[in-house]
Amino acid sequence: MKNILITGGSGLVGRVLTKQLEAKGYTVAWLGRSPEKQRQKTYFWDPMQGELDVAALRWADGLIHLAGAGVADSRWTAARKRLILESRTKSTALLVEKMRDLPERPTVFIGASAIGYYGMDTGDRLLTETDSPGQDFLAEVVIAWEQASLEMRALGLRCALLRIGIVLEKNGGALKAMLQPPVAAPLGSGQQWMSWIHVEDLAALFVYALEQNLEGIYNAVAPTASTNAELTQLAAKAKGKPYIGIGVPGFALRLVLGEMAQMVVGGNKVSAEKTLATGFQFQHADLQKALVDLFKGGGSAH
């Protein structure tokens, strides 16, 4: 396996993953809406319009599917919720449809999923891949996304899905949002669980799934979850920002964020046991060390 095609390659995770794959000797191309703007070899697609250059699929030995509209990028209006769902399901269905009649196509599909599958607030219960899904908006999105991805099996592809936790990356995602205010503070009670993963470990897990013949669904979270207060305090310290232990009240978050507040006031404690049992080794299993690594020039630079 030499040629790897990535959707969502220009995102936070995609860039780190591209770098790791290229360092191992793979040739990497992306699917994107503006190929001319990318320095990376990029084939055209527009999933919402149902368009895709099938030359990309003929070229690729393996396909890694990361694309999807950001869940926390803006308020969940009806239109935004539709985009969050369809950017995942339509893009996946398009890949399946275009591959169906191709004699030359990838033999492996590694797809992104999310721990949102379990529901936005699951309290203190330790969740494994066999737990039943939640019933809120994000759970519905992830259920539909996984169902679309598992259609790859009908085409004879080996299929692995990674249920991704909160990705720690200094230039974006949760950390950037948490550390944006002048003073860092927990959200809500601060006691809600956050199942996190260092971006370099997440990229490495995608590579591992590709190379080690993983199949089925795996939680992509570090071995130990942390509370929101602990993560915020350690992140503030690693970045050298002031921290106060008084949480931003849940009602205030609901005013600002609307329905999306459930995502930050709630939380999940997710098990990494199945992932560890495959032999995968986390380089950043300790939260404090992971944060120090990110803010001392570790993580991705872009």
Automatic annotation (TrEMBL):
Residues 248-294 form the DUF1731 domain. Residues 4-219 form the NAD-dependent epimerase/dehydratase domain. InterPro entries: DUF1731, Epimerase_deHydtase, NAD(P)-bd_dom_sf, SDR39U1. Pfam families: DUF1731, Epimerase. Belongs to the NAD(P)-dependent epimerase/dehydratase family. SDR39U1 subfamily. PANTHER family: EPIMERASE FAMILY PROTEIN SDR39U1, SUGAR NUCLEOTIDE EPIMERASE RELATED. NCBIfam families: yfcH (TIGR01777). This is TIGR01777 family protein. It comes from Nitritalea halalkaliphila LW7. The lineage of its organism: Bacteria, Pseudomonadati, Bacteroidota, Cytophagia, Cytophagales.
